[in-house]
Amino acid sequence: MISFDFLYFRPKSVHEALQIYQDLSHEGLQAVFYNGGTEIISRARAGEVQPDAVIDMKGIADCQGYRDEAEWITIGAAVTLSNITDEINCFPLMQRIAKEIATRNARNKISIAGNVLSSLNYREALLPFLLTDSVAVVAGPAGIKEENTAALFANGSRLEPGKLLVQFKTEKERAGANYFFKKKTKQSAVNYPIATLCAMKREGKITAGFSGICTFPFKDAKIDRILNDHALTISARAEEAIAHLPEKMVNDFHASAGYRHFVLEQLLIEMLEHFEEVS
Ligand SMILES: Cc1cc2nc3c(=O)[nH]c(=O)nc-3n(C[C@H](O)[C@H](O)[C@H](O)COP(=O)(O)OP(=O)(O)OC[C@H]3O[C@@H](n4cnc5c(N)ncnc54)[C@H](O)[C@@H]3O)c2cc1C
User: Fold this and answer.
1) Which domain of life is it from (predicted)?
2) Are residues 131 and 68 part of one domain?
């Protein structure tokens, strides 16, 4: 049960959603954008958040659905992980990652935007957009802008308050690239990752994305250079990549930093061997 009252809005357009947010802010009320609600509801029940209002994005056409055009695919921010696993066949890495987040029931609610902007460390649905250099469409008081996903979400950044994520646009050719994906959890398959490693190989070059290792999901140009350095052995590349993580490894009740190091090293070796075999 949520133990406080809040206002509920269901705008029909991005413009209306932003206007509602601004009007509430002027009245001194704190609003949150709401998609699947799985996180907002569980945090509200736990007393971690107490918004005055929620602005539900599910009535906004631009945030819904999936468009497959000549060279681009566009995925609305309110699209659920189940929509992805069921429908978006031209983005196999995205489908694979979505399939391993939560249960089918939870995936029927969890949205792309809610996962990418989750307050938790994992945000695994961001990884395919990072690896494909997708474009994030973001609306804010200054209008609608297209931004590079990697730059927008660098080092764990989220959106500034009052901005909303509308869609992601991905080049179809990149979405379809050969991929590697492995997620290691503490016990059951349905759990947050100790380490998730995914990678794509395009034009002979590997690019890798990580979740569960640090306090945010990331890809890193330095690490990609190391992974593609054929002057080093596969084991040396794995060890060197780990030495260049953007921050020290997470050490928590899911796994110690030492265990994460061990798991990640194995995953990196497996990934590098996979791409040597298929190339
Ligand atoms: C059983 C279970 C297991 C899970 N396992 C994993 C896992 O292994 N890996 C993983 O990555 N995730 C996992 N998750 C998902 C994660 O923890 C969040 O619950 C989920 O991603 C939130 O999505 P939502 O659509 O329900 O977001 P909401 O609760 O609606 O919103 C989450 C946040 O995003 C913001 N937001 C939502 N939409 C927008 C928008 N369009 N613009 C701006 N801000 C917005 C909200 O204001 C809020 O701050 C799991 C969840 C469950 C329930």
Assistant:
1) Bacteria
2) yes
Longest dimension (CA), the chain: 62
Answering whether pTM is above 0.90, one says yes
Q: What is the pLDDT of residues 138-180, one digit of tens each?
A: 999 999 999 999 999 999 999 999 999 999 999 999 999 999 9
**Domain count within the chain:** 3
- Please say if the pLDDT value at position 279 is more than 70: no
Q: Which domain holds residue 212?
A: 177-278
Classify residue 1: in a domain, yes or no: no
d(CA 143, CA 161): 14
Residues 138 and 201 in one domain: no
DSSP string covering 157-205: --PPTT-EEEEEEEEHHHHTSEEEEEEEESSSSSS-EEEEEEEEEETTE
Ligand 1 atom with the smallest distance to the CA of 100 is: 8
Q: Which of 24, 34, 110 to mutate to test the pocket of ligand 1 (most atoms within 8 A of CB)?
A: 110
